[in-house]
Amino acid sequence: MADPRQFIGGVALVVRDYDEAKAWYRDVLGFDAVEDTDLGGGKRWVVMAPPGSGETRLLLAKAAGPEQEAAIGNQAGGRVFLFLRTDDFWRDYHRMTAAGVTFCEEPRVESYGTVVVFQDLYGTRWDLLQLNV
Question: Which residues make beta-bridge pairs with 15?
Answer without folding.
Answer: 62
